[in-house]
Design brief:
The complex is a heterodimer of chains A (about 200) and B (about 400). With about 200 residues, chain A is an alpha+beta fold. Helix content of chain A is about 45%, strand content about 15%. Chain B has a domain of about 130 residues: Aspartate Aminotransferase, domain 1. Helices cover about 40% and strands about 15% of the residues of chain B. Classes of the chains: A alpha+beta (about 200), B alpha/beta (about 400).
Chain lengths: ~200, ~400
């Protein structure tokens, strides 16, 4: 039961919300080797991650951020910035929202979607570093793949729907209208549904 | 300092209400019983009914006690679709309901459910202050309209509607008129005869009464169909053994409102004015939402672009100040306030909005504490916000 004075959030999350680490000071990002931004203000969440990189070792030496969003959005970018320092670019690229949530001591289910932009912004910053340093070949795009041809629904849309609460194929259909015309994508959609449920919620 | 600025969400019990409820705690008789225990309970329920009725200038028999404002609203909207000619003589042929885009979710979601059941529901727009467009209503009204439901005062932005004029138009076309007056009753004078409405919803816990009890005014002679069946309570209009203690609390709450609301109205207007000017003075780039004058005295809704509402709410909470927000994140859904969006406010402004709602226990010290804390909170959030980076949405505005 939620005690008076207790938050719906973990102590760790609360600590990072009250005292966020590594906030980018000022408005300038010129001193950094890679800059990535995801989300937008109209949706209620936007995150920017900037990194400094040791070129020899390909290790992230500094990571700072700005976030527009709720407590879990602020805390998850804060903890992400602590996690990635000292990581190689490849290690950092593979951080998932689940890793961030775990480090925060868990997130309320309806808040998971607030924390997924941080690692996306980090990957964008790493890709930006590659581009700036003539390593376009190493850029890893997150290309969306169309699953439902009739309604033009991608794997990203399915992931988004799972983060917003879809747990069954029916709920997925309710949110995306996927598979409501020819229905041929059902098997693929169901396996992606399971994949994203497992990825984000460990279910 | 503890500051409770969320009186539109709910209010603390009035000390006099609490006293009367505690004194009645031993009363457990069923008002339907004929013996002394039952008669005592019955007398208390009827006494409360009389207090509530006289508070809104209704007859006792026009008051139905219910479990909440939401239940009252559900009852009115649902009775309209009852196909029994005994329940609603003369209205079943009219297949359309009109309501507004800024109603409480209990009206909007019931409307949505009715639409699935084949009822036609139309939603009135509001202007940028949250006022219903009377010309649009005039255009919508025709002999297919059975019921119009417009809230008297909005819970999020405080904007008040001209219910008397709306009711006149609605009656001219032969439809019934309902107003959800949960936020208005006990804050501004409400006289059902002067308004002319057929149904009116009120709730106890918004006016220093207990939770779990409300009242529905049903004008004499108006068709009716109960939402909860199976008992003769409330003259067959709402089955279920009466919440005697709650009803008694509601009766005392309206009695205290009658004594206090007029002076309190002016006092809250004064406090709100200080709050509004202080915020304007101390914080850049803000927007007030709602109507500047046709609004509840204690309600102030303000947006801070570049700062997200849940963060504002929680940083204020850490300082002992309780407010609410129109941001999506705090609501559990992904969309920000439907009320603010309906007034044409963009999504960012809605995400960055907080509602400050004052009440009878609010003081100038509370307002000053808020004005001391809020600027720092907004500054802190904006400093970590992407909105103010070079080239960001609000970079130039600071």
């Amino acid at each position: 039961m939620l005690q008076a004075g207790e938050w719906a959030y973990s102590e760790k999350l609360k600590e990072h919300f009250m005292n966020p680490k590594n906030i980018l000071q000022g408005e300038d990002t010129d001193a950094f080797d890679g800059v990535g931004m995801e989300g937008n203000l109209q949706c209620g969440d936007q995150m920017m991650v900037v990194i400094k990189v040791d070129r020899e070792k390909e290790v992230i030496t500094d990571c700072q951020w700005k976030t527009y969003g709720c407590a879990s959005a602020i805390a998850s970018t804060s903890i992400l910035s602590e996690m990635v320092k000292g990581m190689t670019l490849t290690e950092a690229f593979n951080i998932s929202p689940k890793d961030v949530a775990k480090e925060l001591g868990g997130l309320p289910e309806n808040k998971i979607h607030c924390s997924v932009l941080g690692d996306k912004a980090l990957r964008a910053a790493i890709n930006n570093y590659y581009v700036r340093n003539g390593m376009e070949n190493r850029v890893m795009e997150e290309k969306a793949k169309i699953v439902c041809q009739c309604m033009n629904i991608t794997d990203h849309d399915i992931e988004e729907a799972v983060l917003e609460g879809a747990r069954t194929y029916f709920e997925l259909q309710e949110r995306t209208k996927l598979g409501t015309v020819c229905g041929q994508c059902k098997d693929e959609a169901e396996s992606l549904l399971e994949k994203f449920k497992h990825l984000h919620f460990g279910a | 300092m503890k500051v409770y600025f969320d009186n539109n969400a709910t209010t603390p019990l009035h000390p006099e209400v609490k006293k009367e409820m505690i004194a009645a705690m031993e009363m457990y008789g069923n008002p339907s019983s004929m013996h002394a225990y039952g008669r005592e309970a019955k007398a208390n329920v009827e006494d409360a009914r009389q207090r509530v009725a006289s508070f809104i200038n209704a007859d006792d028999q026009e008051i139905v006690f219910v479990g909440s404002g939401s239940e009252a609203n559900n009852t009115v909207l649902s009775l309209f679709v009852c196909a029994s000619a005994q329940c609603i003589p003369g209205t079943t042929a009219r297949g359309t309901i009109i309501t507004t885009k800024i109603e409480h979710p209990c009206v909007l979601e019931t409307s949505e459910c009715l639409m699935h059941r084949g009822v036609n529901v139309k939603f009135l727009d509001v202007d940028r202050y949250g006022r219903v467009d009377l010309d649009q209503l005039k255009d919508m009204l025709n002999d297919d309209i059975g019921l119009v439901s417009v809230m008297m005062a909005n819970n999020e932005i405080g904007t008040m509607q001209d219910i008397a004029s709306i009711t006149k138009m609605v009656h001219e076309c032969g439809a019934f008129m309902h107003t959800d007056a949960v936020q208005a009753v006990g804050k501004v004078p409400v006289d059902v005869r002067a308004l002319g409405v057929d149904f009116l919803t009120m709730s106890a816990h918004k006016i220093y009464g207990p939770k779990g009890v409300g009242a529905l005014y049903v004008k004499q002679g108006t068709p009716y169909c109960p939402l909860i069946r199976g008992g003769h309570q409330e003259r067959g209009r709402r089955a279920g053994t009466e919440n005697t203690l709650g009803i008694l609390g509601l009766g005392k709450a309206v009695e205290m409102r009658a004594l206090e609301m007029h002076d309190e109205h002016d006092r809250l207007l004064g406090l709100k004015d200080v709050l509004r000017k202080g915020i304007e003075e101390k914080i850049d780039d803000i927007h007030f939402n709602g109507h500047p004058t046709e609004s509840l005295a204690g309600t102030l809704n303000v947006s801070f672009p570049g700062a997200e509402g849940e963060s504002i709410l929680l940083y204020l909470d850490l300082e002992g100040i309780a407010v609410s927000t129109g941001s999506a994140c705090a609501s559990g859904s992904l969309d920000p306030s439907h009320v603010l969006l309906a007034t044409g406010v963009d999504a960012e402004r809605a995400h960055g909005s907080i509602r400050i709602s004052l009440g009878r226990e609010s003081t100038m010290e509370h307002v000053q504490h808020m004005l001391n804390v809020l600027p720092g909170v907004i500054e802190r959030i904006r400093n970590m916000s992407t909105a103010y980076i070079k080239g960001g949405t609000h970079a130039a505005s600071r």
